[in-house]
Input
Amino acid sequence: MYNFKFADIGEGIHEGKILEWKYKKGDTVEEGETLVIIETDKVNAEIPIPVDGKIIELGPNEGEVIHVGELLAKIDDGEESKQKDKNDEEPKKADKKTETKSDSDSKDNDIDEDEGGVVGKLESSDEVIASSTETKTKTESTKRILATPVARKFASDKNIDIAKVKGTGEHGRVLKEDIEKHTLQTEPETNNKVNQVDVPEIKTYDNDKREKITSLRRSVVKAMTISKQLIPHTTLIDELDVTELVKFRNEHKEKAAGNNVKLTYMAFIVKALTKTIKEYPIINSSYDQVNEEIIYRGNINIGIAVDTPDGLILPNIKNADKLSLFEIADKIEELAKLAKERKIQLDDLQKGTISITNFGAFDAISGTPIIKHPEVAILGIGKITKKPVVKDEKIVIADILPLSLTFDHRIIDGADGGRAMLAFKKYLKDPLLLLMN
Output
């Protein structure tokens, strides 16, 4: 019998709502088929069936919430029948000449009880338990620590005693984020410990109305709080004459449309950012505060902020530096559509290395965006407007793009941020540079 649990699928997701069961109790299923669609605060995840077999029991009903570690389905995979047949085929051996019947019965009973107990625990266990030399004097409270496999491995990698970590999951189950929080709280003050703030009570007055936030909004709240607590933000604000870019785009957007590609300015911006990262890889990194190390990311996965009816989503373009201008434009449109339709996949949200947010889409000139942890920089794009500028001692009308670059001041100095901004402006100002390797 296979007890299929809702696993920790990453990105801080530890609960979801059952949207649709694809099978019912009694159905025969095959490995790899979709068992259920679960709505989380980030994506609608299709959960595949792990084994061939017959469904004996299903988890919560559609519309109900399920937490990491809880039962999704009990599947009869035939293993118990195979084990029973194997046991029936094994002959029983007993040496009656060297021991009395009572001694033999006593020994057989001891063996049956011990082995049956161990096998039973292994078959019904929800955890993968590492080999151990622990003695039977171990306390009951330590034995019963609940934790996801991801959390156990993370704690082991960080040499953290999981018994000392307070779990926030179902029934006190320890999650990966609990380990991360425990690590930050136990760091000494000299290692940038995050100050814990007592949140004052907010009172309700006449005509006020309270409304529960959505799962997605809860995720945004958590991400923004972590970012502002951990990262000292600083922002550079500038303007760029993009008259040549506007002209170039207008000349080629019909050709792009002929190839079923919507050529927006964002495609040029992504391309310029990939080239800037090649010169200044520090803006495509992460800072490991615990180990005091800078992680230079091997891939360039650029996140694009997408406004959806449910809230902000930040899918990313994988290996954006290896894509052509048209390929980038096509990918931007695809990700935006999937995000708005809540069909975005978890992989599209993971492993981002740097982000872009477009204030201009909402008719805003500029802004100071918040970095997505554990990234170290985010580029803000304002609305392109026509302004009078001085060129060759003459006042002319030019297309001006407001820019803002917010970065982690712990590892990126103002001068380095300024140089990265200059490189970005160089590439975006001359579109032909974007087409060169």
